[in-house]
Design a protein that fits this description.
The chain is α/β, with parallel strands linked by helices and 376 residues long. It folds into two domains: 275 residues, Rossmann fold (3-Layer(aba) Sandwich); 85 residues, Alpha-Beta Plaits (2-Layer Sandwich), CATH 3.30.70. The chain is 34% helix and 20% strand. Strands 1, 2, 3, 4, 7, 8, 9, 10 and 11 form a nine-stranded mixed sheet that branches. A two-stranded antiparallel sheet has the order 5-6. Strands 12-15 form a two-stranded antiparallel sheet. Strand 5 and strand 6 form a beta hairpin. The longest helix is centred in the first third of the chain and has 14 residues. It is globular, with a radius of gyration of 20 Å. The structure holds iron/sulfur cluster (SF4) (2 copies). The site of one iron/sulfur cluster (SF4) has 14 residues, from helix 14. One iron/sulfur cluster binds next to helix 13.
């Protein structure tokens, strides 16, 4: 880890307090002289349209504070993301509205993106992806400020700075990557390839109210009371991974992939103030699916398919499913059918957990078979 990282204590979404913090961050990272006349993309986490108090999306007051600070130094902020599901103007408007982004836009705080085209970005040096379909709103940006929400995640354990950039891939195109890169390690390398292809200029994490447990959408909201900033999304994710997982963090999917690229994941823990460590005591994180790589690498497919039903975690549809069909629309393997409620053909399920991530009703649970728990 080579870059700088900053922590700010903040227990609520007071725009005034946050503006003071963001101003400090812009000064520390020398952004204030580079903003005049620039279009600045605010890459929020808009996983789906959800009320801000559910802590699934970047809080709108947090975004307002960043937007006001950009404007103070002459920049023009615009907010954009590609949520799960179809990427069109109707879906975007719905997601913006539910997440509290429309009112500030109408009050002139920032512009909202409605461009749903995409372009191709080559990544010839990529480990797992040599090119990406990327939303065209990225091309308009002179600068990108990454505004992730601090949350746990069923597949990658934690969704932070690097994972937030996956929202630059349009709508259900994201499913193609899940389908092609079924091992968690491959998926994390793809995320790092994407980060190399399009690197944010600054990351400011909304870690005030985040999520623990079954994140990124079905977990429990938790006060972390921390705003975290860095020029390096990788450094920020290494530090937050440590805060969430303590000594286990180096073996977790994203830090492990970072390390495989020759980037050190060790760092001096003294850079983290004690008050931050206290707010991150005993965080509940999802289990790592350690069976994924083992099965895929060492055992022929017919046998692995048979064994995995006894050891691999699997998505289970709960009784509160309302058969809305969102999980089926986003299932990369197309193994969900909608009857009275959603039904999954587990024989074709690739365990990407997109269904759990995108179900707006928390009606998908990840179950861990007893044998898998004992063995792994
Ligand atoms: S599981 Fe969730 S997303 Fe899927 S149909 Fe049921 S309520 Fe909708
Ligand atoms: S059923 Fe769920 S976990 Fe399985 S492939 Fe479909 S979206 Fe992924």
């Amino acid at each position: 880890m080579s870059g700088n990282i900053s922590f700010y204590k903040q227990t609520d979404y007071s725009i005034q307090d946050l503006q003071a913090i963001i101003d400090d961050i812009f000064k520390e990272y020398k952004l204030i002289d580079n903003l005049d006349g620039k279009k600045v993309l605010l890459k929020v986490n808009l996983l789906m349209g959800k009320s801000p108090d559910e802590a699934i999306t970047t809080n709108p007051d947090f975004v307002i504070a960043v937007a006001r600070t950009i404007k103070k130094y002459g920049g023009q902020p615009y907010l954009a993301d590609s949520p799960g599901g179809p990427f069109n103007k109707t879906a975007l408007k719905f997601a913006y509205s539910k997440s509290g982004y429309i009112e500030p836009a109408e009050a002139g705080e920032y512009e909202l993106n409605y461009n749903t085209e995409y372009y191709i970005v080559e990544s010839p040096e990529g480990y797992r992806a040599k090119s990406f379909k990327i939303c065209s709103f990225v091309q308009e940006a002179d600068l990108i400020i990454n505004l992730p929400k601090l949350k746990t995640h069923g597949l990658t354990l934690y969704t932070g700075a690097i994972k937030n950039m996956f929202g630059l891939v349009p709508g259900i195109t994201k499913a193609e990557y899940h389908l092609k890169l079924q091992k968690i390690n491959d998926f994390c390398h793809m995320l790092l390839d994407l980060h190399e292809a399009i690197t944010p200029d600054l990351t400011i994490m909304d870690g005030i109210q985040g999520m623990e447990g079954d994140g990124p959408s079905s977990g429990i909201t938790r006060q972390f009371n921390t705003v975290i900033a860095s020029r390096s999304a990788i450094d920020l994710d290494i530090v937050v991974s440590y805060l969430l997982r303590k000594d286990k963090y180096k073996k977790d999917p994203l830090p492990a992939a970072i390390s495989e690229r020759g980037i050190p994941v060790d760092f001096d823990k003294k850079i983290i103030p004690d008050w931050v460590k206290e707010y991150f005591n005993d965080v509940k994180t999802p289990k790592v699916d350690k069976t994924s790589n083992l099965i895929d690498r060492r055992i022929p497919e017919p046998i692995s398919k048979f064994i995995e039903q006894f050891i691999r975690p699997k998505p289970v549809i709960l009784d509160n499913c309302i058969a809305c069909g969102i999980c089926a629309e986003n299932c990369p393997a197309e193994v969900i059918i909608i009857k009275e409620k959603a039904e999954i053909d587990l024989s074709g399920c690739i365990r990407c957990f997109c269904c759990q991530e995108l179900c707006p009703h928390n009606a998908v649970e990840i179950k861990y078979p007893l044998l898998g728990k004992i063995l792994f």
